[in-house]
Amino acid sequence: MRDLIPRVTPFRILLLLMVLIAVTLLGYRYWYGLGMATNMSDALPWGWWKGFHMFCGIALAGGGFVLAGVVHILRLHRFEPFVRPAISTAFLGYVMAVIGLLMDLGRPWVIWHPIILWQPRSIMFELSWCVMLYTTVLSLEFLPVVFERFRWLRLMRLLQRVMIVLIFAGIILSTMHQSALGSLFVMMAHRLHVLWSSPLLPLFFLISAIACGISAVIFEGIVADIAFGHRYSAKLLGDLAKSLPPILGAYIGLKLMDLSSRGALGAIFENSLESWAFLIEIVGGCFIPGTLLLKDHIRNNRATLFCCVIPIMVGVAMNRLNVNLLGLLGTSEAGYLPSVIEIVVSIGVLSGGLLALGIINELFPMKREEKLHATPAMD
Amino acid sequence: MSKLDRRKFLAASAATAGAAATLSRPAEASHGAEEGKFASSIAVLYDATKCIGCRTCMRECALVNDLPAKEREYRGLKYNMPARLDRNTFTIIQTHQEDEHDASAAGREARWSFVKKNCMHCLEPACVTACPVAALQKTPEGPVVYLEDRCFGCRYCMLACPYQVPKYEWVDRMPRVRKCDWNRACVRVCPTGALIEGPRAEMVKEAHQRIRQKPDRYVDHVYGEHEAGGASQLILAGIEHEKLGLPTLPTTVRSHVAEHIMTTLPGWIIGLGLFLGGVYRATMGKEQDNGHGPATHGRNEEAEA
After folding, report:
1. Full-model pTM
2. Which whole number is the average pLDDT over A121-125?
3. Which residue in B88, B136, B154 has the most chain A C-beta atoms within 10 A of its own C-beta, making it the best mutation to test that interface?
4. Which residues of A105-144 are buried (b: 16+ CB within 10 A; e: fewer)?
């Protein structure tokens, strides 16, 4: 059992401290109400917690379904080493998003209501089901890591028989979830800024989540290289990044088609806060990194690759916050900036995620032990 | 292709294929098909030109709904207090005075008006479509009601409502969404007849008749007749409704787009499932072609590193 006790490092103690601070602040939030802890108001009822945890977090977790699809459906097996880290990150990401949701909902103790109280015309109803089902699927997809760790081979074989069903279900559910996050805002056409208010929002959210997910997997791969020793060759990381320029290109193209069809191209140059945020998101987050990644020597070098995937992740995160917060501020009666509590609690949740990820990496096998697996590459 | 078919087609493409919808005009949803259905349901007609701003309606509303009303704010000459709807104010009388400069530019005295605001009780309410647990429901009699025990507090209704009516109990351990529940206490106490109620079709007719009889007194528009697919609250005014802070809305129902997206889901699930299955089958030979398993391949990569 001793090898199940994680190492205690100063960094981990710091993370734990952040988690404890967040828990204390959450106690304050639950006791005194949302309005005391956050800056949300009737004018802008969705704030930083929804934007950061639900929208940015879920986009960053997109790597799970993409890598599962690439390796198990497209069978590009050389990317197999990325699958486990991607699935465990996605799983943690979803758990963190659910925690974020529990913080943000007015009555979190009845979060299960959509199971019994159906209203299938609502996008939010679809979202609730996607979150519940996909988190379950992700936890099952993560289980082989646990089974392998404890050598529960019979259970592992049992799970492997249904694994392909789980992978199919996982991909379908997460495409639904990612796009539904965009569909939410189709109903807010009366409020959302013209640069983002599009009937194609579900498609945009899906495509950008794929780009963001792949970038996050590369980012994590490079960080894991630094933290736990080299695992991935620079060539393999670069090959995974090959997919980014076409995806980002298609995204930019669709965005322009959408803007011009709605007659909103002029809004890009209106020189407002919104237009600059949009430009940074598209040019800085998509165009520049996408173009740079076309070059072999940039892609196949860890340092330059790292510098390219970060703006993509930041760009997509910015897009989510732009749709969720900035785009709605213009039509809102009052302004909004997240309160200190909102930010500190978010940092606490993030710290908890990092702590869990580090411990999983330390105690659980992130590399498949092939001799334990009857079927090739099925988890 | 009929109008209806075209609309459905556009919404479906918006959700799935995407590009097709971008090339045509983006999907705008239908006109309020529900207006006929709600012809005999109860509607309230508010005539701003008959309103004297006494705010008896606000007081009665607070009493009947057991809201902590600040009595002094509802009496005397301090208008616009509170300034807007909030968790303890389900209805409000606001005053509006035209800008002096605008008026003199148009060669007349500055006009002024009261305006009563509360939930419009839409015929096809966005909040009802938005709510994932049916905590908001449109009853056949007209009201849009809130069922507290169903709500889990996602606050999507607040963002979906084109009038920004639902408010939240932010400083509360068990918060509720708060809004007018259409008990029409305000109508019963109105001393000037600025508020009247009756079957919706009759109220619409009455409103148009008033405009016809006194065209100088009214703006030729019955607010709420077609706004966002129509509402159970109708507003007549002497100043453009937009200037009174009532949003200019399309006659289409925005939530139809969301509903159409939901109807595309079975197709998406089946289509993507078949696609993934097809690719899965098509790539099946690849493992055998390799000669060695995928794992060995992966290991080769690592050896290169």
Report:
1. 0.88
2. 94
3. B154
4. bbbeebbebbeebebebbbbbbbbbbbbbbbebbebbbbb
